[in-house]
């Protein structure tokens, strides 16, 4: 048994455009389990024999709530397939005993190199599942795999970054406060499947299953404070559960347990769809020209530009200068968005859409 990361080749004209890069699935904490038919058990574990002869997975697309497309390196036939729910913290496994598995049938295309697995019933939004399948090529070489995935969200709203505060606080006057990012939903929907990525620290924050209305803002507190009891995520209708200084009774507050998430000098923040790994909004920033030479985030900046989330070149020249000599973001004056797109007029963000808050922003905004 071995863990592998696969990347999907560019989609053909006839393929559906909702794609998931398998590497992104694994980065979210999942593991793809595979086993070749020609293998033997050794003191070191399972050893693959003639593994190069067996078919391999080239990529995966989550099409909708009841189907997944899987590509292979050679024509295959599907011997068996089923879908089962994973419990919280459970990882995909070939030997998992599934309770009430969902049967799946495969429809082959592209000469047998692509299988669309269709489930007997839909996977539920916000739940974690695995697709278990055994495939075989014309020469009898087989591959058995367990592929983890999330229940598909067909109501993912268009959201953008609205406010960014990279600075935490541990002073007596301001208390122990977390860095945060505020996002704004520009249409109704559910946030499950949306994630925040902080490039400098390589931190990813997956949003939970939450219903939002157009115009609603959600504060993502990127670490817990020392007062754990005050860090209550507001997943329902009660927006007064969180009690930190930077929480708000007018905005929904979500807390994460990770450490220092944002770089105070320079960073690239991506708001992206987890299934497609596509950035829908971004902020690229730096604070002084001295640390601009340390701006080493071209890959994330390139992705932001390529996905249409950030306007300009993927370079520090196109980044937002969060210190223009007169205004500099502080623990009480964050970076705020001054110009917003709309759900009907979606466009890339740019350094001209951002400014430093003119007024001090305290808790209970």
In short:
This protein has three helices and 26 strands. It has 365 residues and is mainly beta.
CA-based gyration radius: 23 Å
What integer is the average pLDDT? 83
**Major sheet: arrangement of strands:** 1-2-11-10-7-8-9-6-5
Enumerate the spans where pLDDT stays under 50 for 5 or more consecutive residues. Answer: 1-30, 38-50
> Beta-strand level of the residues, as a percent range?
35-45%
Q: What count of helical segments does DSSP give? A: 3
Shape assignment: elongated
Largest sheet: 9 strands, antiparallel
- What's the total number of strands? 26
Roughly how many Å apart are the termini?
52 Å
Structural class: mainly beta
- Bin the helical content: under 10%
Order of helices and strands: EHEEEEEEEEEEEEEEEEEEEEEEHHEEE
What does this structure look like?
The chain is mostly beta strands and 365 residues long. The chain has three helices and 26 strands. The strands form six sheets. The chain has a nine-stranded antiparallel sheet. Strands 21-20-15-12-25-26 form a six-stranded mixed sheet, with no helix packed on it. A five-stranded mixed sheet has the order 18-17-22-23-24. β17 and β18 (203-206) form a beta hairpin. The model is unreliable at 1-30 and 38-50 (pLDDT under 50).
